[in-house]
Design goal:
Layout (H helix, E strand, L loop, with lengths): L2 E2 L1 H13 L5 E8 L5 E8 L7 E5 L2 E5 L1 H7 L3 E7 L2 E7 L3 E4 L5 E4 L2
Parallel strand pairs: 1-6, 2-5
Antiparallel strand pairs: 2-3, 3-9, 4-5, 6-7, 8-9
Length: about 110
């Protein structure tokens, strides 16, 4: 299960409406970043075999099975400050995070 704050969902819907309104929002984990893994957010036109679909009012979030193992329980928030806006991630699976907030490591 993943969770989106209302602010995060609203921002994703806003960005999506500027792209293609009929695409799906995909959240994945990719190797790399300061701590070993990073969150990858993109838009996709297709649901793939093994994908999990999470419904949030007017938004569907697609997560592949392998990524879900690394982010189960993840909460995504969005906030703005004087430096601009950005997504914030709270991942209970992470044993360490980078100060950038987008990279994390998990135990094997």
């Amino acid at each position: 299960m993943i969770h989106l704050s209302q602010a995060a969902a609203s921002e994703i819907v806003r960005i999506k409406s500027k792209q293609q309104p009929n695409v799906l929002f995909r959240l994945a984990v990719k190797p790399g970043g300061c701590s070993g893994f990073f969150y990858d957010m993109s838009f996709d036109e297709a649901i793939k075999v093994g994908d999990r679909i999470f419904d949030f009012d007017e938004l569907q979030v697609i997560v592949d099975a392998q990524s879900l193992n690394q982010i189960n329980g993840l909460t995504v928030d969005y906030s703005e400050d004087l430096m601009g806006g950005g997504f914030r991630f709270h991942n209970p699976q992470a044993i360490a995070t980078c100060t950038c907030g987008n990279s994390f490591s998990i135990s094997n």
